[in-house]
Amino acid sequence: MAQKKKDNDFKDGYTVLASNSTPSRDFGKDKTPEKKPKDKKHKRLIVRNVFLIILSVIMVIAGSGCLYYYHTLDSLNYSEDGNFKDAGNYDPTAKIPNIEYDPDFNDGTINMSMEEGSLLNDPMVLNILLFGEDKSSDGVSRSDSMIMLSIDNRHKKLKLTSFMRDMWVYIPEYGYSKLNHAYSYGGAKLSITTIEQNFGVNIDRYAIVDFKSFQKIIDILGGIDIDLTAEEIDYINWQTWKNHQADTRYEILAEPGKVHLNGRQALWYARNRGDEVEGFAGSDFDRTDRQRKLLRTLASDMKSATLPQIIGIVDQIGPLITTNLKKSEITTLVANSLTYLQYDLVEYRLPSDGNYYAEWHYGMATLDIMDWNKERLDFAKYIYEELVTDALDGYMTYEAP
């Protein structure tokens, strides 16, 4: 397994911007200036003074930029959970349990054979779990969406993985339930522990955005242009009218194709399962596809941004995000953002096609995974690629980077 990496700016696999250059200091050392005509000396003094003025202005601007950037870092809401683990570190205490499922619910067992039963990890891959939080009127928060963003510097890829909320999983200390219940029981920390212990992949950090904040973020970005079908347009119109957010049943009059959405409309697009408009077939599978499409569109739009623009955006949306990323880590991510945005973007979803079945548990509609060994192996190969190989007994083996 990967060895522990010191908790600093992702120095293994991440580019840390630094300046090692020092100005030349050999001028003016024990040198007797040649006597020059008075007018030339006067000109040199003028030039030097102008140079000093320009240098002073540059330093003031640079200092202001530093203050502005530190203000940007301070604008984020840092989680009270704290950094409950070191980003990218191998954690020997995070064991993968060999859990036997109730035979009434599932055939077989969860099995995975790895070194010391530990979580898979690569210091060149940063896994950040993105939560879309639904704060209900009863005071209970639920994870309406869970998407893991993997910044894979080894293969130059950005990887999006949707975890479907209705998956039937084992929640540590609570037993079997739907995946999104873990967030209600113990917030981001328990959700991450649940995903890790069921799927075996290390999650380094998280970021949380609730529904209201999501709308504001999209509006700050100037809205989003995204391809919509006639049914998707009708769904957004129906929800905005039914929830008294628009004065007309048909707020969006655009034809199918690329449509500009504001934050409120984009939220309904991201929440669309298609089960509240008569005649429109849809499911949570469709909804997770839409959520990834929305993130993919935003990433594509950001490719033309400059670094100062990205810093400005972070400054505006920072107060709307809760995260346990450290300031040093955010600095590294922002500094390398233009590089990351050029990476290929690929997508995945759990459960994977052909490896689940619909079931009912305690009156809840759930998705049960048929073959846990296969699910874990395929997921690990997607994240870590050639580092993960098949073993003869059906378990996976992992080659430490």
Compact description:
This protein is α+β, with helices and mostly antiparallel strands and 401 residues long.
Explain what the structure shows.
The chain is an alpha+beta fold and 401 residues long. It has a domain at 85-208 and 333-398: 3-Layer(aba) Sandwich (Aminopeptidase). The protein has helices at residues 38-74, 181-199, 211-220, 230-242, 263-271, 284-302, 307-317, 327-335, 337-340, 372-384, and strands spanning 77-78, 125-135, 141-152, 157-163, 168-171, 175-178, 205-210, 224-228, 257-261, 322-323, 344-350, 356-361, 364-369, 388-390, 396-398. Helix 1 packs parallel to helix 7 (307-317) and helix 5 crosses helix 6 (284-302). The termini are close together.
Question: Which residues sit in consecutive blocks of at least 5 with pLDDT less than 50?
Answer: 1-36, 55-68, 86-116, 277-282
User: Which class of secondary structure composition applies to the elements?
Assistant: alpha+beta
Proper CATH architecture of the domain at 85-208 and 333-398: 3-Layer(aba) Sandwich
CATH superfamily of the domain at 85-208 and 333-398: LCP protein
The largest sheet, given as strand count, sense and whether it forms a barrel, is:
7 strands, mixed
CATH class of the domain at 85-208 and 333-398: Alpha Beta
What level of helicity do the residues show? 25-40%
> DSSP helix count?
10
